[in-house]
Specification:
heterodimer, A: 344 residues, alpha+beta, Alpha-Beta Plaits, five-stranded antiparallel β-sheet, three-stranded antiparallel β-sheet, 7 helices, 13% strand, disordered C terminus, B: 110 residues, mainly alpha, 4 helices, 0% strand, globular
């Protein structure tokens, strides 16, 4: 490529660029070559040779024609393969995506069924335990204490009056011209922080038990953003988020709706078209939390010498907040540790 | 006439038989297509110029595809596969454009 173009002028490469008279520079020559001589130099050389040499025999000519035909067959096959690959790849991508979606759905269905199984087993365990403890007075007291502790820690399902707070994403920002989502930062989306603040405000207002989308919160619950989804204790929840809180409905309503957090979210209705609704409910029923079994934390002075390899049955080792149980019917107005997941 | 028929036969065969490309060669397929198109348009133009040569055509096609594939392969090994692919496509694309322009001049006299 570096030698200056020195070619028989064929009619086709007659239009020469302004580089013609330029001083010889290898880069320039290369560019000129690239821009002006599109034809393989071999054709011109071969044509020159043909003028000098005698024509090849008929056999060789036929063989060469066959070679050209074969080459063109190969070209055709390459084009066909490339075409097929191009159209085959698009459905592939769609298929992979659909497969992933199926996978997610299957896994969450499996997870749901396991969750139900766990709930059933927990209920059975509670019943069996109750039956086993019902024999003696000491046992009955233990059972009562357990029940209390489980209610506070979210390990048993509870019913009662309370509030239902619903909050949903506003519409995503759209391009005013095309109507397509612009992909800008979506200010109208509910963030993990929003749910954390609402839940903390409910705790502060005297809620005794809270669920988000039927996920019961415990003292160790987390609400956090993972990518685009909000996870409550590792399980995804979706907009609109329904937060149910059991407590003295009137007092809860008054204190919660008067809180700065609720005021702020009412402002978001106007500003971002988010949905925010607070309703009183006479009869709420909150499920038990799956509850992470405590493997390392032991009750002080209690079962410290228990076998460490067997996971403790739920309820035998209760988290610290329950170590001073309030009166059996009293409202645990002491603030339960806020179930916040920290900043993002 | 025979070359055009051969091309059609090749396309038909590729579409009907659906030969599978080894996974290792698939990244080179687009480059091979561009190189093949360059050789084909070069051949057509040479023919219209009256200087077509069978041997040059076959050799240019094979070497075009091989060299383009080799450059991309080397680039992949060196971690600059994308850039080298772009380079190959630009060079071959310029040539294709030039040759098609020449063909156009031959066919439409414009």
């Amino acid at each position: 490529m570096s030698e200056p173009p020195k070619r028989r002028p064929t009619p086709a490469n007659l239009p020469r660029g302004p580089w013609r008279g330029a001083p010889p520079s290898p880069g320039l020559a290369m560019l000129a070559e690239l821009m002006n001589n599109h034809l393989d130099a071999g054709y011109a050389a071969a044509a020159e040779r043909r003028e000098v040499e005698q024509p090849p025999s008929a056999l060789i000519r036929r063989f060469r024609t066959m070679a050209v035909a074969l080459t063109l067959v190969v070209v055709g096959v390459i084009l066909a393969i490339a075409y097929q690959q191009a159209i085959a790849r698009a459905p592939d991508a769609a298929q992979a995506k659909a497969g992933l979606v199926d996978d997610i759905k299957r896994r969450s269905a499996a997870s749901d069924s396991m969750q139900r199984q766990a709930d059933d087993l927990r209920e059975k365990l509670a019943k069996d335990r109750e039956a086993a403890l019902a024999d003696s007075a000491a046992g009955q007291q233990t059972a009562r204490q357990l029940e209390q502790l489980e209610t506070i820690t979210g390990l048993s399902s509870v019913t009662g009056p309370g509030l239902v707070v619903t909050i949903g994403d506003g519409p995503p920002p759209v391009d005013p011209v095309t109507g397509e989502p612009t992909g800008e930062v979506d200010l109208a989306r509910v963030l993990d922080r929003d749910l954390q603040e609402l839940v903390n405000a409910l705790w502060r207002s005297g809620a005794e038990a809270i669920t988000i989308d039927n996920q019961r919160l415990t003292p160790t619950s987390t609400i956090r953003l993972a990518g685009e989804a909000i996870l409550v204790d590792l399980r995804p929840v979706t907009s609109p988020y329904e937060i149910k809180a059991i407590g003295d409905a009137d007092r809860l309503n008054e204190r919660f709706t008067g809180s700065s957090v609720a005021r702020r979210f009412r402002g978001y209705i106007q500003r971002y078209e988010m949905t925010f609704e607070v309703k009183r409910d006479k009869d709420l029923s909150l499920p038990a939390s799956a509850g992470a079994p405590l493997s390392y934390a032991h009750v002080l002075g209690g079962a410290a010498d228990r076998d460490e390899t067997t996971p403790p049955a739920s309820g035998t080792a209760t988290p610290p907040p329950a170590s001073t149980p309030p009166a059996s019917t009293g409202t645990p107005t002491q603030s339960v540790p806020s179930p916040t997941g920290g900043g993002r | 006439m025979i070359p055009a028929l051969a091309l059609v036969v090749g396309i038909a065969a590729g579409l009907l038989i659906e030969p599978s490309v080894p996974a290792g060669l698939q990244p080179y397929l687009p480059i091979a297509v561009v190189a093949a198109l360059d050789a084909v348009f070069g051949g057509v133009r040479a023919r219209l110029d009256g200087i077509f040569d069978d041997k040059v055509f076959v050799v240019s096609f094979v070497s075009n595809v091989l060299v383009a594939g080799l450059i991309v392969y080397l680039g992949d090994k060196l971690g600059v596969g994308g850039q080298l692919s772009t380079g190959v496509v630009v060079v071959l694309g310029v040539r294709i454009f030039g040759n098609v322009a020449a063909i156009r001049r031959h066919v439409f006299r414009a």
